[in-house]
């Protein structure tokens, strides 16, 4: 691997880790609300905050087609999205307790919806930037860098419930994360160069992108892939937040969740490191081979 690929891999990994950091912070909310006596119905409303990740295809062509001249193509989108995330996390740190205590879960959900929406913009931009930062031989590593980065970033969930829940509280945790996020975003702005350029930088290219997506969605292999993506996680639904909240209702301590989650994340990162050479060119095939074993485990 060349020095450029090493540098590019580290950059991509760090950006995905920042994404995972916020996902971990967002993932803390259901258990925090449960502790504050919020009922399951309102917690279900908050789950809508994660919807942007399911529909990011609606704005992906805009992010992929519009650049900002000398500022670059991918980096301005990343800096823009991460700056908003940092600012909103700071705002949430000041209003979280008040919103929950007053039952304003819809407003809280809207705030986190925007945070997650900005994360999708960052995700789209990093996915595209990886194609420029890595040579064609190593572009296939992007999926593994994403998995490892997001999982390590998501350890923020474990850190909070293992060490900070009873000492500083969730709002203070949000404040510290927001400060770190804004500082890290400033570092990306200053230290990382963006030499990527779109083939066409205009709104006409955006419309062409949407047209191409529509054409792709009419292809049989794409239809099969879409159906697969929409249904592949149904079998894992019992492992979701509902199980965690049910166990919490039966007096299972939050630190127990944190320890189990820590082990599983470590295991997932280790698997990503082991299988990285198998997934460089045929990542979907590797997933299909592993899928039955995951279902048996469920």
TrEMBL record:
UniProt membrane topology term: Multi-pass membrane protein
- Per the record, the major location class is membrane
Matches recorded under Pfam families? Acatn
Keyword Membrane tagged = yes
Coiled-coil positions: none
Which keywords has UniProt assigned to this entry? Membrane, Transmembrane, Transmembrane helix
Q: Name one GO biological process term.
A: acetyl-CoA transmembrane transport
Can you provide one Gene Ontology molecular function annotated for this UniProt record?
acetyl-CoA transmembrane transporter activity
Signal peptide feature range: none
Query: Which ranges does the record mark as transmembrane?
Result: 12-33, 45-66, 78-99, 105-126, 138-161, 173-192, 213-236, 256-276
- Its GO CC terms? membrane
Which subcellular locations apply to this protein?
Membrane
Q: Which PROSITE patterns does the record cross-reference, listed alphabetically?
A: PROKAR_LIPOPROTEIN
Q: Which protein are we looking at?
A: Major facilitator superfamily (MFS) profile domain-containing protein
